[in-house]
């Protein structure tokens, strides 16, 4: 009962602090220092009078203090990207390792932020820490940017008194994860663009180019070859029902996206299909294994209990299939099974990964072996993506050549036929 009451009080305290910080306004100021030199900067406060008071306290004579205007085209930095969090993690880790106090480190990093939303977020966290909250409690106010895994690692570092070391590990982890994500996005970008460009070129030709040839052939009264007639029919259909074609494409994409978000069964089916794709599936599998191994290695090294860590690790694999497997492994480990045995039962991990995990468990160096696995598969993903990109360049030319060239040949076949009869 007492614990619940204390938790409720802490929650109410954090909410009050957050409301207080959200009421702060960013001011731009110009002041003269003791030498009469003109200085300018920015400061967050409730009103301009407090800004002037703070400047005088620092020995400066305020000249102008005004509320910072909003950008012409909306708020700068409307979203906080994972890359922003990765950079912040490295900055805070470096400063903490150098002996800079946490509050001062947050203030320095916030002042250097160009993303307004992230800057206000860091200022809020700093104010919460000044109010007596631990770092992981302050970060809990922003669960989207600082997920459960991130907060658990920070909490473990605070509990063990090695926060600077854990923050450095977290920074490396975030950088590696963002690098892997960027590689996967790069691999997915090219095929998507090939399909999009091919469809766009085809629609333009059917709507604007083919009708010109159709009128010419009609005036000549020539008998059209089968390929040409197919292209003509497709053009007529596109001209009459272009709205239906575009609507079907857009509707299909939207339906798949919505179903993936709202239906766990469909999302599981889609993820399993993606993992079975010829080339891309291999990249996705290796990426999931790399993220699993690095995330579990980081949490285990930070001192987070294995069973507790695996629940957070499940969400970090980037794959629903692998995430469900990790949760099953967690249940097996909770009743006393070895991790390597649980991994083998899923059938999703290669024998090398299982063997290295078994060696790590027996030697007491599980985190070290997991990092080795992560490094190996991260390099495999990098190599696979680079190879895929190299192979896709000629493939793009072939696909566009077949689509566009096929239409052009179909349109010129009657002309060639007429020229042969002359």
From TrEMBL:
Topology in the lipid bilayer: Multi-pass membrane protein
Keywords assigned by UniProt, alphabetized: Cell inner membrane, Cell membrane, Membrane, Transmembrane, Transmembrane helix, Transport
PROSITE patterns: T2SP_F (PS00874)
Superkingdom of origin organism: Bacteria
InterPro entries: GspF/PilC, T2SS_GspF/T4SS_PilC_CS, T2SS_GspF_dom, T2SS_GspF_sf
PANTHER family noted in UniProt: GENERAL SECRETION PATHWAY PROTEIN, PROTEIN TRANSPORT PROTEIN HOFC HOMOLOG
UniProt protein name: Type II secretory pathway protein
Species this chain originates from: Dyella jiangningensis
The organism's taxonomic lineage, starting at the top: Bacteria, Pseudomonadati, Pseudomonadota, Gammaproteobacteria, Lysobacterales
């Amino acid at each position: 009962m007492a614990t619940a009451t204390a938790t409720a009080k802490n929650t109410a305290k954090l909410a009050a602090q957050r409301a207080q910080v959200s009421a702060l306004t960013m001011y731009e100021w110009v002041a003269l220092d003791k030498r009469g030199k003109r200085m300018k900067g920015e400061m967050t406060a409730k009103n301009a009078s407090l800004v002037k008071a703070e400047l005088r306290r620092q020995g400066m004579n305020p000249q102008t203090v005004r509320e910072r205007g909003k950008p012409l085209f909306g708020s700068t930095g409307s979203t906080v990207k994972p890359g922003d969090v990765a950079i912040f993690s490295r900055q805070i880790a470096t400063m903490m390792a150098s002996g800079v106090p946490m509050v001062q480190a947050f203030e320095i990093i916030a002042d250097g932020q160009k993303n307004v939303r992230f800057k206000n977020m860091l200022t809020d966290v700093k104010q919460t820490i000044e109010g007596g909250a631990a770092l992981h409690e302050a970060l809990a106010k922003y669960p989207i940017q600082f997920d459960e895994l991130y907060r658990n690692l920070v909490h473990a570092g605070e509990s063990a008194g090695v926060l600077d070391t854990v923050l450095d590990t977290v920074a490396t982890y975030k950088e590696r994860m963002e690098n892997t994500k960027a590689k996967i996005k790069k691999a997915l970008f090219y095929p998507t663009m090939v399909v999009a460009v091919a469809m766009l070129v085809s629609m333009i030709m059917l709507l604007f180019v083919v009708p010109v040839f159709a009128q010419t052939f009609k005036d000549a009264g020539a008998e059209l070859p089968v390929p040409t007639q197919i292209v003509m029919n497709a053009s007529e259909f596109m001209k009459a029902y272009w709205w239906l074609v575009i609507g079907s494409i857009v509707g299909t994409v939207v339906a798949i996206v919505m179903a993936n978000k709202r239906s766990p069964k469909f999302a599981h089916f889609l993820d399993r299909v993606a993992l079975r794709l010829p080339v891309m599936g291999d990249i996705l599998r290796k990426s999931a294994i790399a993220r699993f191994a690095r995330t579990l290695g980081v949490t285990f090294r930070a001192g987070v209990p294995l069973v507790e860590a695996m629940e957070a690790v499940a969400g970090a694999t980037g794959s629903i299939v692998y995430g469900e497997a990790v949760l099953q492994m967690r249940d097996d480990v909770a009743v006393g099974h070895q991790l390597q045995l649980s991994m083998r039962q899923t059938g999703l991990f290669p024998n090398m990964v299982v063997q290295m995990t078994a060696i790590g468990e027996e030697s007491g160096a599980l985190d070290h072996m997991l990092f080795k696995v992560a490094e190996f598969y991260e390099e495999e993903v990098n190599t696979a993506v680079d190879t895929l990109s190299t192979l896709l360049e000629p493939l793009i030319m072939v696909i566009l050549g077949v689509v566009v060239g096929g239409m052009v040949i179909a349109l010129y076949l009657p002309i060639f036929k007429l020229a042969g009869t002359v």
